[in-house]
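Check out a protein:
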Amino acid sequence: MQKKNIRGFASDNNAGIHPEILAEMKKINIGHEIGYGDDVYTEKTIELLKKYFGKDIDAYFVFNGTGANILALKMLTDSFNSIICAETSHINVDECGAPEKFTGCKLLTVPTKDGKLTIEKIAQHMHGFDFEHHSQPKVISITQTSEMGTVYRPEEIKQITDYAHRNGMFVHMDGARLSNAAVFLNTDFRTITTDVGIDALSFGLTKNGAMNAEAVIFFDQALSENTKYFRKQSAQLASKMRFISVQFETLLREDLWRKNAENANKMAQLLAEKIAAFSEIKITQKVESNGVFAIVPTDIIKPLKNEFFFYMWDEHRSEVRWMTSFDTTKKDVNDFIELIGRLVT
């Protein structure tokens, strides 16, 4: 069992809530507000999202990333459709079959080395159209940043969206770590979503200092018809929605989201730089966001995890995943590196 209050590199979900968010939630915890999104805080936050993503978007707040993904995919598909995604994608690996259960669709997975889809990889599933015995490909789902910590460049996304739209398909983006990607690319959210043709976005800030700030954003309101009903059916409609809305507003209004993601990314870079000094450890992916993937000597994994908790990624090849967070410090990294140094010598 993990030690109480142990700091580590398991997940940005393990970090706490940014103090400014807690303060704002406390500030609005007075009096009564109309529930289910008809409050002034939610209205204000949706207007703020329009400034970031465009005035024509339609946004729906939900409780968690899985909820955002299944709701977005449901609105883009019929049950006879299929969804093309990376083999490592969250919707395939970490959502307990929820996308298939909620949408009724088949997931068509693509093996990748870096977690990123390309047209060449997608093309293997582009067949069986208008053939009633075959599930009909309708959505390409990409993750930004990918589950391997890698980042799609705007031109890479545009190639995929153009290809999808030429074939009568949609593109969904799982943006659980969209903030980290924007920081790595030194850009804004719009440049890697609206401007490159994304149809639906699962926009998450929970991994970037929030408590439970997740939303589904549609870039064409024609796609979101009846979303409010499916959100209710999927148990993702918050009664006291103002407490979700204010988390978005706090992170977005003065670029707190950027400061948090910058720290997480910088700490991952620092960790990777220091890890490079150990010939016994091999980094397996480009470090482009807040994740470091590495093959580590098997005998040091348990003592490392006892002091700094983290998860195995691929036990067969002794590959681990180290994630940094908005509150990861240089001391966390240095203490971890010092422990590795003692264990490998």
Q: What stands out?
A: The chain has a mean pLDDT of 96. The domain at 19-253 is CATH 3.40.640.10 (Aspartate Aminotransferase; domain 2).
